[in-house]
């Protein structure tokens, strides 16, 4: 999924992307009103929407961005080719050395090299080969395991809301969550996650029972009458990693690192693609203000990217701080304090329209986490859940017709 902050960034850089996705079947889900959410604060009320997320498969999202980019005659794609090293010096990167699958190698000169190669980026080593060392890295391991599976929704259930069910991360015992996201062609992308003895397995016959035993069985009831389209995919790659390129004592001209190449986040929060899009827009704005070859342009862009990274990193790691972690990669005390504060805000958002609006604005990556420290939000966190929580999911008439809970009728 793509948060509205990231979607707007892509649309600004590639006009027409939103229309392409919509025509291909991607859903534009309003936030928070389009989400039926159970959190430690209870069922969230259906507050008015001010933001949104794009819900679709990764293949659909990538394909249409790729189509728009490659339609530009100035773009040339080198297929079946990989980067092997940076060329230039510690003062300026002047290009890359590439190799084909057949083993042919050659150099490509460039005014600006952008590393958007993802979590497996080798830039730290390539910089070391140029004499730039000491790039600080941080890793936060997690014991969270998640499993995902795609379903074909029954025809009568096509149109289900996005559903999120979560246990309190700070309570004793295993922590578990579940998310159902409606995507193109009447399908549901379902993700289940848990820690320790509460982790999901790859067993096909265990997927629905796991969803049914979450704090509310809504997701399990929905997928129990849907047809699975894929096997269960399980991953424990839920940790977060960051490379602090912006803090390097020396940074070469002609090189910018962005996206997952600079930081990765727990995929449970769906931030990665949105943050990468914001990084690209930050680079665009930097180049619009500064000359490409002006001293400090690359470092200025890297620092702008770092500010956006810090916002997403803070949100992700503070939530992860409430889960069990490996002792050698644990969150800091500050991370844990932020996690407890966000948990209080989540409780407040279940019953406060103002708290929900601000929290959604930040999690949709349309505002800085600093907004969460406004006096009104500090008060909301102090009060916590000040109204009686809803006893039933806050479904609209249309959503209720889709969900149709025979076992959990509403009064």
Automatic annotation (TrEMBL):
A Pfam entry, by short name: FAD_binding_3
Protein name: FAD-binding domain-containing protein
Recorded GO MF terms: FAD binding
Lineage: Bacteria, Bacillati, Actinomycetota, Actinomycetes, Kitasatosporales
InterPro entries according to UniProt: FAD-bd, FAD/NAD-bd_sf
Residue stretches making up the FAD-binding domain: 72-290
Residue ranges crossing the lipid bilayer per the database entry: none
């Amino acid at each position: 999924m793509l948060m509205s902050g990231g979607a707007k960034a892509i649309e600004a850089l590639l006009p027409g992307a939103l229309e392409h996705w919509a025509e291909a079947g991607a859903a534009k889900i309003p936030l928070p009103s389009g989400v039926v959410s159970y959190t430690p604060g209870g069922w969230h009320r259906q507050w008015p929407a001010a933001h949104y997320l794009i819900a679709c498969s990764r293949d659909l999202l990538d394909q249409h961005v790729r189509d728009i980019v490659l339609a530009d005659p100035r773009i040339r794609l080198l297929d079946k080719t990989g980067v092997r090293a940076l060329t230039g010096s510690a003062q300026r990167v002047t290009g890359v050395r590439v190799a084909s699958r057949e083993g042919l190698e050659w150099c490509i000169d460039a005014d600006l090299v952008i590393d958007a190669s993802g979590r497996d980026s080798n830039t730290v080593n390539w910089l070391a080969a140029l004499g730039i060392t000491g790039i600080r890295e941080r890793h936060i391991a997690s014991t969270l395991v998640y499993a995902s599976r795609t379903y074909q929704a029954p025809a009568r259930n096509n149109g289900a809301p996005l559903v999120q069910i979560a246990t309190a991360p700070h309570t004793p015992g295993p922590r578990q969550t579940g998310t159902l996201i409606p995507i193109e062609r009447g399908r549901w992308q379902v993700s289940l996650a848990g820690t320790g003895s509460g982790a999901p397995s790859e067993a096909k016959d265990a997927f629905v029972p796991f969803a049914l035993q979450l704090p509310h069985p809504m997701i399990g009831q929905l997928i129990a009458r849907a047809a699975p389209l894929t096997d269960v995919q399980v991953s424990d790659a839920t940790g977060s990693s960051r490379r602090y390129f912006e803090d390097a004592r020396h940074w070469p001209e002609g090189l910018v690192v962005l996206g997952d190449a600079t930081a990765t986040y727990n995929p449970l929060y769906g931030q990665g693609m949105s943050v990468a899009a914001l990084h690209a827009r930050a680079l665009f704005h930097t180049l619009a203000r500064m000359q490409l070859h002006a001293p400090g342009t690359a470092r200025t862009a890297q620092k702008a990217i770092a500010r956006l990274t810090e916002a997403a990193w803070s949100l992700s790691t503070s939530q992860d701080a409430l889960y069990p972690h490996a002792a050698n990669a644990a969150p800091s005390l500050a991370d844990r304090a932020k996690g407890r504060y966000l948990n209080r805000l989540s409780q407040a958002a279940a019953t406060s329209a103002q708290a929900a609006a601000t929290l959604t604005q930040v999690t949709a990556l349309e505002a800085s986490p600093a907004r969460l420290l406004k006096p009104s939000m500090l008060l909301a966190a102090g009060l916590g859940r000040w109204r009686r929580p809803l006893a039933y999911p806050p479904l609209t008439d249309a959503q209720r017709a889709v969900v149709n809970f025979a076992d959990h009728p509403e009064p």
